[in-house]
Design a protein that fits this description.
single chain, mainly beta, Pectate Lyase C-like, 16-stranded mixed beta sheet, 6-stranded parallel beta sheet, 5 helices, 8% helix, globular, pectinesterase activity
């Protein structure tokens, strides 16, 4: 796990090893995430092999793009190709069809960063031993909720590795309008994040479009801090925006840890009518509300939500007090949420980049 630093802000912090979003299909046995956390890295390496061992298995356009990657260096001072991340991104041609690795040196980069939709195959990569800090302080009052993120990714096949991504706007106090402050918005398809810290308060991570995979990431916030398609006194982890059982969307958290300083935190609330969220093999401390979940004071949504837990541990995982509309999943029910095929990952996911 990364991101073990604790900052006292009366929030709930989630240190999440894997997060997979969207598209469950029938998986093969080898791509199920193992129950034993100590085996995850070996399992991942055995399934998600390097490019030279995946010929014919990956999406053709990805194989071509990865063949000859270009490296751009961003460093503070005069030793890099650029001194800001956005200048490096601007240098990538529109319609780019080759992997571009933007290597970011240590330090704090105070800028609003956006990967446009017409620039796929971009990687932002820091040093895992001295991660760069990408930070901005925009709020919904300034830009609107979905456009305020410190880092917004709109392009397919994006990779973020070993980055701290933060929105440094003040914690909402219940008085200021438009105090939501997104750190990361992921609104593309087939994107992966490795070893990233994602920090904010309300609406920390906006995941609203496409298939995404997070590994060894630490996500921290207070209200709705993982949301997509409040009351400031509440702490709520997810607000997933599925509106119909026919929508093939959802969040799956596997081998995570939920900890922090808050009390009575909800695993999810029914922001829309049919959210689908599953926690598996997740350690839950006493920050979690014994009821677990909220139907948003709209009892009719108790019939349409899909809130599931599977073999979770810790005092916060006790099922005796859970709301009756939640599910303690059987092995068969949990299987689709424990598979890399949940995001069709075997066709596009590659190991963390190396330079």
């Amino acid at each position: 796990m990364t991101g073990k630093k604790r900052i006292e802000n009366d929030g709930v912090y989630a240190a999440i090893c894997m997060v997979v979003f969207f598209a469950p299909i029938v998986p093969s046995q080898s791509i199920y995430i193992p129950a034993d956390k100590s085996k995850i890295n070996d399992w991942f390496s055995s399934v998600i092999k390097p490019l030279n061992q995946r010929v014919g298995a990956l999406n053709p356009e990805l194989g071509e793009a990865e063949a000859e990657p270009k490296i751009i260096k961003v460093k503070q001072g005069d030793s890099g190709d650029f001194t800001t991340v956005m200048k490096a991104i601007d240098s990538v041609p529109v319609g780019n069809n080759k992997r571009v690795v933007i290597s970011i040196g240590p330090g704090s980069y105070q800028e609003k960063i956006m990967i446009p939709r017409d620039k796929p195959y971009i990687t932002l990569m820091g040093d895992p031993k001295n991660m760069p800090n990408l930070t901005f302080d925009a709020t919904a009052k300034d830009y609107g909720t979905v456009d305020i993120a410190t880092l917004t990714t709109l392009s397919n096949y994006f990779v973020g590795a070993y980055l701290t991504i933060a929105n440094s706007a003040p914690k909402p106090d219940g008085k200021r309008a438009g105090a939501q402050a997104v750190a990361l918005r992921v609104s593309d398809d087939r994107s992966a994040f490795y070893g990233c810290n994602i920090f904010g308060f309300q609406d920390t991570l906006c995941d609203d479009r496409g298939n995404h995979f997070f590994k060894d990431c630490y996500i921290r916030g207070t209200v709705d801090f993982i949301f997509g398609k409040i009351d400031p006194k509440l702490t709520v982890i997810t607000a997933q925006a599925r509106e119909s059982s026919s929508e093939d969307t959802g969040y799956s958290f596997v081998h995570g840890k939920i900890t922090g300083t808050a009390k009575g935190s909800f695993l999810g609330r029914a922001w829309k009518s049919s959210p689908r969220v599953v926690y598996a093999y997740t350690k839950m401390t006493n920050v979690v509300n014994p009821t677990g979940w909220s139907h948003e004071m709209q009892p009719e949504r108790a019939k349409t939500v899909y809130y599931g837990e599977y073999k979770c541990t810790g005092v916060g995982a006790y099922s005796s007090g859970r709301e009756p509309f939640t599910k303690q999943l059987t092995e068969k029910e949990a299987e689709p949420f424990l598979s890399l095929d949940y995001v069709d990952a075997t066709k596009w996911l590659l190991p963390p980049p190396k330079i």
